Amino acid sequence: MYASLYTYINLLTNSNMDVVCRIAVFLTLAFIIAVILMEPALGIRLNRVKESSSQTLPGEEHLVTSLPGQPAVDFKHYSGYVTVNEKNGRALFYWFYEATSHPDEKPLVLWLNGGDKRRVLHVSGPGCSSVGYGATQEIGPFIVDSNGHGVKYNPFSWNREANMLFLESPVGVGFSYSNTTSDYNILDDEFTANDSYTFLHKWFLKFPSYRKRAFYIAGESYAGKYVPELAELIHDRNNDPSLYINLKGILLGNPETSDGEDWRGMVDYAWSHAIISDETHRIIGRTCDFDSNDPWSNSTCADAVDELLRQYSEIDIYSLYTSVCTVDSASSDDKSKQYKLMRSSSRKMPRIMGGYDPCLDDYAKAFYNRPDVQKALHVSDGSHLKNWSICNTKIFQGWPDTKPSVIPIYKKLIAAGLRIWVYSGDTDGRVPVLSTRYSLSSLGLPITKSWRPWYHEKQVSGWFQEYEGLTFATFRGAGHAVPIFVPSNSLAFFAAFLLGESLPSAR
Ligand SMILES: *[C@@H]1O[C@H](CO)[C@@H](O)[C@H](O)[C@H]1NC(C)=O
Ligand SMILES: *[C@@H]1O[C@H](CO)[C@@H](O)[C@H](O)[C@H]1NC(C)=O
Ligand SMILES: *[C@@H]1O[C@H](CO)[C@@H](O)[C@H](O)[C@H]1NC(C)=O
Ligand SMILES: *[C@@H]1O[C@H](CO)[C@@H](O)[C@H](O)[C@H]1NC(C)=O
């Protein structure tokens, strides 16, 4: 190369050349020198592109690079839409955080929030956002700041232990949508599981390095139904090797499990925690058949349950011993409307929306409706905005009757050898610890390690019991969304779950 440079310089100084030719030669020379000088830098850049393209290039377009107010972090995160149905134009929104360290070695965990948040009372099931709740109030690395202007770092984020994928499902929840409005009328559990399943396969095309990774599904509340249902679908389809997903287990927090047991537990819990009187408790016990299709056809039962809901509406049903958010817009007007709704749809088990800090809900709403946030998350171009709300009440109200119990699915998944852990914050009145214990005891599993405390930082964090095929644990003093109340304990618990290790039973 240096020899040819010498030739060029000779050419340039050769007085026989005309001016145009000299300029051309000079420019060529300048270019060659520039290339020589920049070669190291260019070389590195080319190598980098090569490395990352072999891993995650299809998903790279979803890399989030400029989330407003985001603290600096050294892991990558991605968000955007995955089309799950081309014909009808259905797209689900996800937000994915790589693990904070060694993402290549850590499992992949899908987090689902069913519905069921908010302290207002409501009929029917799901419709809330995993991004608004799970990711930005509970276990994600960025928690919405109380001023709604940005996010702050969560040092107890679950992406310290796993690669965390948050999915807004079904369509109509959060940013997820369908271009075919009639789709919104046919949503149910099975539709949701189908779309989530399609989502996973499409997502793996974008992030092929996760295709064979150890995979877990986690969630809370109404996801108590969604999670086992999706796990069952994956398990069934895994018979086809080309569709194989390396599902290892499921994790469920204060999960709706079995309607009859859930109601019995809720009533007994309210009584034993001094929310209702002995008389009300007795009337419910005598007149409510929670295993029937329509317990509310007995008006004495319906009135007594209304009384229970009325008492809970005065406090935060999701966290009995904390204050309510007094700036919440869910006024008492709203609540009486909810009662009427509940009573008018007597064919259904009333399902009640959940919630921990309704104030946080408002901060999340402000944040996700910002043009710059939507642009950064690849939701919109920043001018044609999407309308984001934390829960879609239409979906709540329209949700058809679903499986009354997922206990049969538990049995199937236990038989398949999947790891199943269930946890319960013991100050939640909505899906209280008693509901979960009633449901689990109906499984009749043999006990392998009897009831005992588990410890975190030298304190009793709760109690646990191990069964053949299932672990159950409580969180002492935590409400419905456990990680909000005890973030450090929950992260330790999550780590134990992923390792499949017993919780620490000594100080
Ligand atoms: C829905 O319709 C909009 C507007 O026509 C289009 O830009 C978008 O790609 C469609 N979504 C899907 C998932 O097909
Ligand atoms: C879910 O998918 C299965 C298999 O493709 C199909 O038979 C079923 O009808 C789907 N259910 C809904 C509600 O879309
Ligand atoms: C409700 O159920 C109880 C117990 O079965 C029964 O005695 C009572 O008559 C029922 N009340 C109504 C209004 O159906
Ligand atoms: C967003 O939703 C609110 C409340 O439902 C509604 O008033 C508003 O018009 C919607 N905005 C857009 C752009 O759809």
Notes on the structure:
- With about 500 residues, the chain is α/β, with parallel strands linked by helices.
- It has helices at about 1-15, 20-60, 130-140, 190-205, 225-235, 260-270, 280-285, 300-310, 330-345, 360-370, 370-375, 395-400, 405-415, 435-440, 480-485, 485-500, and strands at about 75-85, 90-95, 110-115, 140-145, 150-155, 165-170, 175-180, 215-220, 245-255, 420-425, 445-455, 460-465, 470-475.
- It has three domains: about 1-60, no CATH class; about 75-260 and about 360-500, 3-Layer(aba) Sandwich (Rossmann fold); about 260-345, no CATH class.
- α3 packs across α10.
- The chain is globular and about 60 Å long.
- It starts with a helix and ends in an 8-residue tail after the last helix.
- The relative contact order is 0.14.
- Mean pLDDT is about 85; it is low at about 1-15, about 40-55, about 115-125 and about 330-355.
- One 2-acetamido-2-deoxy-beta-D-glucopyranose binds near residues 287, 298, 299, 300 and 301.
